[in-house]
Amino acid sequence: MTDFEASRARFDLPEGVTYLDGNSLGPMPKSAVERARQTIADEWGPMLITGWNKAGWMNLPGQLGDRIGRLIGAPAGSTVVGDTLSIKVYQAVASALELRPSRKTVLSDNGNFPSDLYMADGLLRSLGQGHDLKVVDPEAVLDAIDESIAAVMLTQVDYRSGRLHDIKKITEKAHAAGAIMIWDLAHSAGALPIDLTACNADFAVGCTYKYLNGGPGAPAFIHVRPDLIDQVRPALSGWLGHAAPFAFDLDYRPGDGISRMRVGTPPVIQMAVLDAALDAFDDISMEALRARSIELSERFISEVEAGCKQVELVSPRDPQARGSQVSFRFAEGYAAMQALIARGVIGDFRAPDTMRFGFCPLYNTLEEVSHAAAELCDIIATDGWDKPAFKTRKAVT
Fold it and tell me: Is 50 labeled as ligand-binding?
């Protein structure tokens, strides 16, 4: 049975703070400090370079990939961790294009995270082979999929509104048109049930510092459908994706299976922290987590709308059509969010006017949600946001 009180106790949550920004950066698991200390003091310190063998550092990318794979419905040996999400997006798109050499268009939507679009556009430009990136409204994706599309690249949950794509329906349409399907799970892995095997997705990528709580800068992951992996040529032919890295061959030979999608040296300390963070999911039913997430978000929407008529719901009204976040539009949204943070309720802001709140049942409670709604309504009702300090833009919003 899923016990959310027990899972909350796993996190180091500052006293007096209501944290509703786990969709941007998850809080620190209490075990992270000891795990990092152990890796530094008990492994790196005494073992030095022998830690790659003695402590099993070289195996971490695959081990963590399998742990994440369990949360996204991917079979063992089909997911690997390392590098950044941007690099994993680049790998997926480049591989997809090689699998469909006669097609020239990558399809995405304007709700995709901009970094994904930047990486795809940069790759297509560097190829210089007449490829183009077609960007449509999220609602227009299905109709835009046809036989001209080489790859469809989408983020399952819109980072601004929380709008949720139908992963199975879109993947089926992409395959029916002969296109490769790439999913970015940055805002859904660890937040809702995903079954990549059932939907037959070709590639999936994601970060681990949001709902997976791996810490700032935690490495990304990539999944490749098992029957495709031996056809995939890694565009970024990194040393650790080589079939025999320590043979030091001058010619690249891709490694077996998902290991070929490795690129750079594993960030061992960060991976150790991520390994500790994933322990929080060991006794968690993703279906139960999803049900509680909807309960939290529904209460927040209800109480904010009841107490504050000046805001507009940006997220889908239907909870089944959104991820684990809720966004409201307010003309002075940035200042209002800064005022809210000053009161100990942390969400975030997305330009031009959207206040964004993430809900994670691993540590968020119904009482916190009600408190956050009350504070937000009070700030807007009293113009508590109208202070110069709250209007000064910071580097990270």
Answer: no
